[in-house]
Amino acid sequence: MERVSLYPDLDNNLWGISEEMNIPIDIQPPRIRSKEHPREILAADFKSLGELPIQGGWGYTLDDAVIIDNKDPVAPKGMAFDGVGLEYIFVEKRIYEELIIFRQVNDRYSGIRWNLLRQKLTIHNGRSYDVLTFEVTALPDKDYEELKAEWEGSNGYGSPGFDTPRHTKKRDSKTIRYVTEYYFDITSFYGSKQN
Known about the structure:
Number of strands: 6
Structural class: alpha/beta
Strand content: 15-25%
Radius of gyration: 20 Å
Helix content: 25-40%
Order of helices and strands: EHEEHEEHHE
Shape: elongated
Distance between the termini: 34 Å
């Protein structure tokens, strides 16, 4: 599989922010650019997941929506189709692709967290779309390892001299943050009684 950079123009010096600022660093949401479809990439990168019953793109826009297909041959048979659960699996895996797998080794992230900010249903050209907006936060691997060593070290958390507020401030000042959307075409299962 051919992998291409997410943001070749992103300035790696962005992390040189003062530790006095107790806020995450806002960045542009990364975007995966690949010739292969997400179904193929996710099946290859997360083998235990197998193929997902999806078509379409990475879900960055309405035109690039992830099409969830409850009639796909790999969709589970004989049980209720969990399209919403599939959405959340996809969200997690896309985040890992964006912040770990599609990145160079020295440009990866750890301590990744995501939080649903809003969800809305939209109808476009007779098709139903679930649009999820998430806030994603993470730490560059190097900073994560440094903070972990500081926290777990012999003079770390729980020791008399450990300065928890300073550690928290330092962590927050190195944390990146972005808000991103996921567009899912849910026409195949939205409103279905077997959902």
